[in-house]
Amino acid sequence: MIRNICTSLMFCALVVGQTLLAGATTLLNSHDEALIQAGGSSPEASFYVSPNGKDSWSGKLAAPNASKNDGPFASVAKAQSAVQGLVRNSNRPVVVMLRAGTYYLPLSPTNPGTLNFTSRDSGTSRAPVVWTNYPGEKPIISGGEAIGNGGLNLTWTQAAGNLWTVQLPAKTQPFEYLFYNEERRLRARIQSSSANSVGYYMKGGSCYSTATPGPSEKVKTSLCNLGTYLRIAEEVSPDSPQGSGCPSVSRKNGSEGKCLDRIAYDPNDTAITNWANVNPSGSRCGGSSNSYPPGDVELVLFDAWTVDVMRISCVDPRSHIIYLTGPTKGNGDVYPFFGPGKNHRYIIENVKDAFNAAKAAGQGGLWFLDRSTSPMTLNYLANAGENPNSDNVVIAQTGPVSPIGGSLISAAELENVTFQGITFEVDNFVPSPEGYNNDENSDDSLPEAIDCESCQNVVFDSVTVRHTSSSGILFASANATSGRPGANDVIRNSEFYDIGDSGVRVGHKPSGMDRADSQVQRITVENNLIQGYSRVFADGEGIAQAGGHDLLYTHNDINDGYHAGISACLLACGSVGYSGNGTNITSSYNHIWNIMQGVTSDGGTLYYNVGGPNGSGMGNKIYNNLIHDTTDSAIIDEGVPGSGYGGAGIYLDIGSAGVDLQNNVVFRVNGDAVYMPSGPKNGLPPNTFNNNIFAYARSSMFREGKPWPRGCQGASMRASLTNNIFYFDRDSSSGFHVIHGCAYSCGLPQNQFQKFEGNLYWRTDGKFAGDPKAFHAQNREPNDPSKCTAPPNPDMAWTYLSFSQWRENGSHGTSPAMREDGGGTASVDPGFGKTGQPSDFLLTKNPMPGFNFANTNDTINHAGRSHPGAAVPDVPATFPNYRFSSF
């Protein structure tokens, strides 16, 4: 592994530095046994915290003494203040041990709410501060409140059948997240059986799936809790009577526009009506006010790579218009991808009428917070065998300290602190009354459970983060244009699951004013499990990086998310001036699978966006990653403008240049195995692909959509692909092409435009070597090379070539000589298996010269966590999801 990671002095120094940083914690762990005193006494710590402690005690004892007049603290906040008083004069590690139990931050006897850490809480390199679990115990820090014992100590009433109710304390904050026996439960959603809807609906006491494609089929009742994707019937024009005065967006060329705060719904969706908990007071629909708050019903709009979580103002059943309390996102440059577009999907949830209908139909596991009463009343439909008076029901209460800050921990300029063995759970981000419409990329404007701004030498080791409303954890620089960077921080050996948005985030939105010495840097994310993410904001990513440089993502297991697995760099961050952003980012030995699931588009599985029209970050590496089973929303959105695409294996966006890809194994993706939407800036180095296995992509094995975004002047090589295996089972009759995109070479010899050399091409029917449409050349020069992309009709735009013609010196049409892959082969079957598992691609010999099977075997055998931690439960779905069963 060192030969892969230590590819520069900077990264070697990073690895060594982090090893030293871990020293204090490693020594502490190794001395746990030695610290246990004779006679079964407690391990030694500076302070202890326990649910049966008191904040008036000294905190020096691990358990109450016999006289019950001294013992551990009761709250983490009290221990924090004690550490501040001790750390100034300490020359040895300061250790705080938390005993087993749940510490509900809103109910803390000292400083209830978010734990705010500053430089006053810092240790030193010689005397770090360690917050850890008591050996063998599992403490939980929660931003929620338990309804029953240990929390609010309230009693539920069984109102009728499976309906249970409880009146909450007057001080309870509005919330949108409830967890029943450590499982996220949903609010009631609208269901529809109309022809355009996709998902689940109840009929005659049974749940049916739209089973797209095909007829409806009966499924288990719990799936109907996911509801139905409805589709926008039409865009509402600002020039129409229904669009008068609306906030709107127009195409860049001004040809058309659409309202952003209203949608036209399908009249066949008969469940859309003036629901009981819609307050129409002051709305365009008219009607008298009621006791529900405005915007109580939510609408989630699925764009291409983003979502808008909006609130409904009112419904006009005469014109079939739903009005929102605020506008969704709009962008005239990419008009179809944002805002209410025809046939785009949306769901409607927290509908009281739907909750009542679910009760009547026998559904369970749903809840409704009735905010028309004072105090609020919580309603729950129990599943068979559930009793909320004996089960654990937790409501989210602790919100973020700022719109993008932390909820459970908010840290600034903290250093030399380690958190280990602690579970962090349940925070409460609630979209504003106007809704949330700013989830453009990498979730930059959403908060997280744990936020560490300009922290240095801070480690989260063997922690669990779960049940979040938004993202899990963020390391960033508070101000990337000046001042102190976030640096030398580590997240390792940890589990992130049931995450509302992204699991791990790095950096804030970059700008041209960023400075390399102030930007977040030298961050390591290693040996973690990130599972079941983007459960609220469906565009969340496993690891989501906005800005930053010298970053390492290695040996992580990332699975079961509704968008990208790893997303490195926000909006071409490497081309925004010289800031250091987007440079020296390494993703290695990560196992990423079961991604997108038909919910979102344009995510890819492992995504780098380090380039742009003006340049690109350099020194970026993608080594030894195992990537498979990605399904974008084409499975349900094929042909919908601004949707249904982008399920690539490796996705190098917007002119990313000089990215080095080696020894990756990518298979079963419904987009392209490798996708480059646009080529690098002319004169920058090409992206290089060596010794990879790419298999079973549904669209193409390699696609470069728009190679020449700045035209042909100074044309240079776009990509170099050497000694790779391309293994596929499709041909051009299905729209599949081994190589796709614009084939115009700007006058360069073809092998100086895209260089293919020493690769193996094998189609499972064994006939690819003789296929007259195996490859292609561009028939004629496009009118504008900068706009050249994949032709809508390849048969008219391309001259097809067999493998032997692709390799020969002669020209074809107006294209230069091909001379591609003289050392390649299309006649060798590598002998891969057919189970759909990674082991199918293990090899016992090199199938062609130049390929090193030991390196790809190493990927298959060692990608993912090198030291797996405890198993975590499967995370229930929160949206209808779909996967291609056959690739």
Dominant shape: globular
- Main sheet strand line-up: 1-2-5-27-30-33-36-39-42-47-50-53-56-59
Number of helices: 11
Q: What share of the residues lie within helices? A: under 10%
| Poorly predicted sequence stretches spanning 5 or more consecutive residues | 1-40
* C-alpha-based Rg, rounded: 28 Å
Mean pLDDT over all positions:
92
Structural class by helix and strand composition = mainly beta
Distance between the termini: 32 Å
β-sheet strand percentage: 25-35%
Largest sheet: 14 strands, parallel
Number of strands: 62
Task: Provide a brief overview of the structure.
The protein is mainly β and 887 residues long. Helices cover 9% and strands 31% of the residues. Strand 12 (198-203) and strand 13 form a beta hairpin.
